[in-house]
Amino acid sequence: MSVPSPASQVRPGDETTPIPLQMAPRRRGKPPRHFADLTAAERVASVVEAGEKPFRAKQLATHYFTHFTSDPAEMTDLPAASRTALAETMFPQLIRPTKVMEADGGTTVKTLWHLFDDAKVESVLMRYPQRTTLCVSSQAGCGMACPFCATGQLGLTRNLSTAEILEQVRAAFRALDRGEIPGGPARLNNLVFMGMGEPLANYKAIIETVRTLVAPQPDGLGMSARNITVSTVGLVPAMRKLADEGIPVTLALSLHAPDDDLRSELVPINTRWSVDEAIDAARHYYDVTGRRVSIEYALIKDMNDHGWRADLLGKKLNARGRGWVHVNPIPLNPTPGSIWTASDREVEDEFVARLRGHGIPTTIRDTRGSDIDGACGQLAAEEDDE
Ligand code: SAH
């Protein structure tokens, strides 16, 4: 076992000054209120306020959540005279696609969205033979400052609203439903909060989004909570709060190092909540929800990919019991200007083998979309926009 001395490692500050953690958004403006921001009861109230009968709320919900449309021309069961005004009040345009990039024969689609205030975010749709996954953004930019992540370099512009997130999801449901993604009409099965942003730093909007995602149609999109993954840098109090919500979403913790020295560089929030505190909160999530937690570990060449770190990780996870966790190593996706690269194949194999040797289920995350800068950690909408 060789433990490299800190001086021999490539460090984040070598070529660029690390950017600071940023807890508060730069921009405070709020997008217009949208039907998808509201609870079922609020939708009724809002329709009545607009001078319509209460049952119109259900009709609008059916158009939006069952047929994925907000276009008044498609709402022929509403009175022709008030249809357009009603739809415009309830469904203000919140997100506008300005660039679409495809890979894998059109089964991977990255969309750049412009928001009402010209903030920009991206989402990525990935269709596999057996399932379809959407990766959504929860914030414009991100304040968590992880040095290997493209979004982390942007800083935080602002939180997205519930409807701004749900609109990304509706667009995916719609494209799949209309047969626009090769493979025939389909439903969206999986949703991961792994686009731009730290979801647990936008807690209220994320919880409301999840509630609507899992509500049966037409009140929501009828997704299964277990197929929704919330990925976090390890905001410990929010992880504990999430456990108590009674919605068994899958929790993923971006660990990336099992030791505080290195993790504080790779995931700067570690200076506030340590490796042990983050792993304890992950175990607590499992205790309360019964959902097996994922540990994400971007494998960065000569940085965090040492055998001894795999052993230390295995030990720390096993110290908290068996069968509650699995590890998802992610080959580092290159980001512009980064000095880091993915680990060599043999090193990756060894890392995985060691974890499995400790009895930890371990599966390498695929890097679908990396050729269109649409893989984990590559979303950098501000820079993409010309
Ligand atoms: N803020 C959330 C979501 C981030 S994206 C979080 O940190 O968990 C989802 C995963 O991609 C995180 O584990 C993140 O650390 C990882 N990631 C970021 N940049 C990456 C890169 N360049 N290569 C591989 N994974 C990366």
Automatic annotation (TrEMBL):
<keyword id="KW-0408">Iron</keyword>
<comment type="similarity">
    <text>Belongs to the radical SAM superfamily. RlmN family.</text>
</comment>
<feature type="binding site">
    <location>
        <begin position="254"/>
        <end position="256"/>
    </location>
    <ligand>
        <name>S-adenosyl-L-methionine</name>
    </ligand>
</feature>
<keyword id="KW-0479">Metal-binding</keyword>
<feature type="active site" description="Proton acceptor">
    <location>
        <position position="122"/>
    </location>
</feature>
<keyword id="KW-0489">Methyltransferase</keyword>
<dbReference type="Pfam" id="PF04055">
    <property type="entry name" value="Radical_SAM"/>
</dbReference>
<comment type="function">
    <text>Specifically methylates position 2 of adenine 2503 in 23S rRNA and position 2 of adenine 37 in tRNAs.</text>
</comment>
<feature type="active site" description="S-methylcysteine intermediate">
    <location>
        <position position="376"/>
    </location>
</feature>
<keyword id="KW-0004">4Fe-4S</keyword>
<feature type="binding site">
    <location>
        <position position="231"/>
    </location>
    <ligand>
        <name>S-adenosyl-L-methionine</name>
    </ligand>
</feature>
<feature type="binding site">
    <location>
        <begin position="197"/>
        <end position="198"/>
    </location>
    <ligand>
        <name>S-adenosyl-L-methionine</name>
    </ligand>
</feature>
<keyword id="KW-1015">Disulfide bond</keyword>
<keyword id="KW-0698">rRNA processing</keyword>
<keyword id="KW-0819">tRNA processing</keyword>
<dbReference type="InterPro" id="IPR013785">
    <property type="entry name" value="Aldolase_TIM"/>
</dbReference>
<dbReference type="Pfam" id="PF21016">
    <property type="entry name" value="RlmN_N"/>
</dbReference>
<feature type="binding site">
    <location>
        <position position="149"/>
    </location>
    <ligand>
        <name>[4Fe-4S] cluster</name>
    </ligand>
</feature>
<dbReference type="InterPro" id="IPR027492">
    <property type="entry name" value="RNA_MTrfase_RlmN"/>
</dbReference>
<keyword id="KW-0411">Iron-sulfur</keyword>
<dbReference type="InterPro" id="IPR007197">
    <property type="entry name" value="rSAM"/>
</dbReference>
<keyword id="KW-0963">Cytoplasm</keyword>
<protein>
    <recommendedName>
        <fullName>Probable dual-specificity RNA methyltransferase RlmN</fullName>
        <ecNumber>2.1.1.192</ecNumber>
    </recommendedName>
</protein>
<feature type="region of interest" description="Disordered">
    <location>
        <begin position="1"/>
        <end position="32"/>
    </location>
</feature>
<dbReference type="InterPro" id="IPR004383">
    <property type="entry name" value="rRNA_lsu_MTrfase_RlmN/Cfr"/>
</dbReference>
<keyword id="KW-0949">S-adenosyl-L-methionine</keyword>
<feature type="binding site">
    <location>
        <position position="333"/>
    </location>
    <ligand>
        <name>S-adenosyl-L-methionine</name>
    </ligand>
</feature>
<feature type="binding site">
    <location>
        <position position="142"/>
    </location>
    <ligand>
        <name>[4Fe-4S] cluster</name>
    </ligand>
</feature>
<dbReference type="InterPro" id="IPR040072">
    <property type="entry name" value="Methyltransferase_A"/>
</dbReference>
<dbReference type="InterPro" id="IPR058240">
    <property type="entry name" value="rSAM_sf"/>
</dbReference>
<keyword id="KW-0808">Transferase</keyword>
<feature type="domain" description="Radical SAM core">
    <location>
        <begin position="128"/>
        <end position="371"/>
    </location>
</feature>
<dbReference type="InterPro" id="IPR048641">
    <property type="entry name" value="RlmN_N"/>
</dbReference>
<feature type="binding site">
    <location>
        <position position="146"/>
    </location>
    <ligand>
        <name>[4Fe-4S] cluster</name>
    </ligand>
</feature>
